[in-house]
Design goal:
Number of domains: 1
CATH architecture: 3-Layer(aba) Sandwich
CATH superfamily: Ribokinase
Shape: globular
Structural class: alpha/beta
Strand order of the largest sheet: 5-4-1-8-9-10-11-12-13
Order of helices and strands: EEEHEHEEEHEHHEHEHHEEEHHH
Number of helices: 11
CATH class: Alpha Beta
Helix content: 25-40%
Distance between the termini: 37 Å
């Protein structure tokens, strides 16, 4: 067993300003975002030894992110402070059409990730390296850094988890497909969501998405289906696991929570199917509160709900 961390993620963390749900639209609530950051925080809350590789600005927002990770028990030895670039920010406003996101991330510290500045010892001593398509889309140097991290990790026997989180505001679909398909070819666990995958593979059929990910080289594929659960395949067995029924109020970060919960369980030895069942529950619980970080559950909360669901299943 490696002496390093269980799960290390690479990517971009941001400061969130969410328009308050009140009569005064000038009120904004400060929070935190970033898909891979959410994932390692979720994993830490669920008991995994997790760490993060990124860059933050030498500003108040960068310090707040560092404080957040330290408070959550996420290792920050792979985080660099860039005095010459700002921490990325995004705004969430609410209107008749639902959420609207506005980003101030061009030239951010995280976008200046580069192969030459990677903390390779943090990456190569981990058990799992997690990244997403957003990690690659924020800039060309960051994309190069992700592939360099993957190469270093694989050479050290570290397994790769990949979320195809697609943001077409960051890059055109043709480039996104080329990079994402190449990464799926080296990923041990592919973790696409149906919303992203339907654009990548031109299909709404989860089974065809699984087939496509396997054909590209991913041995284990989990297609996240939101409230409908997930479809899991290890290349030999395929199973749809229904979602947990809750009174959801905000699905922000649910897919990121799923990733963190899934990886937390597979590093302890669970099968992909058992890990995905656990992750379904964790993701459902995170929809009970607002924001990406605050509602992330603790292990005891997930276990309690799993036990309750097991008691409701009919006896075989």
């Amino acid at each position: 067993m490696k002496d390093g961390l269980d799960i290390v993620a690479i990517g971009e963390a941001m400061i969130e300003f969410n328009q308050a749900r009140s009569d005064d639209p000038r009120n904004w609530l400060q929070g935190f975002g970033g898909d891979t950051s959410n994932t390692v925080i979720a994993a830490a809350r669920l008991g995994a030894r997790s760490g993060y590789v990124t860059r933050v600005g030498g500003d108040a927002f960068g310090r707040r992110l560092l404080d957040l990770w330290i408070e959550e028990g996420v290792d920050t030895s792979g985080v660099a402070v860039d005095e010459g670039a700002p921490t990325g920010i995004y705004f969430v406003s609410h209107g008749p059409q639902g959420h609207e996101f506005s980003y101030l991330r061009s030239g951010s510290a995280a976008s200046r990730l580069a192969p030459s500045s990677l903390p390779l010892s943090v990456i190569t001593s981990a058990r799992v390296l997690h990244l997403s398509a957003i990690s690659q889309a924020i800039s060309a140097p960051a994309c190069d850094a992700c592939f360099a991290a993957i190469d270093a990790a694989r050479n050290a026997g570290v397994r790769i988890a990949y979320d195809t989180n697609l943001r077409l505001k960051l890059w055109p679909l043709a480039r996104a497909r080329a990079i994402i398909f190449a990464t799926l070819g080296v990923a041990d666990w592919a973790l696409p969501s149906l919303d992203d995958a339907r654009m990548l593979f031109d299909t709404d059929d989860p089974a065809r998405i699984v087939d496509a990910c396997h054909a590209l080289g991913s041995p284990v594929v989990v297609v996240k289906l939101g409230r409908d659960g997930c479809l899991v395949s290890d290349g030999r067995r395929r199973e749809h696991l229904p979602g947990s029924r809750v009174d959801a109020v905000d699905a922000t970060g649910a897919g990121d929570c799923f990733d963190g919960a899934f990886l937390t369980r597979v590093v302890t030895g669970d099968s992909p199917f058992a890990a995905a069942r656990y992750a379904n529950v964790a993701a459902a619980l995170t929809t009970l509160g607002y924001g990406a970080v605050a509602p992330l559950p603790k292990a005891a909360d997930v276990t309690k709900m799993l036990d309750a669901e097991a008691g409701q299943r009919p006896s075989p």
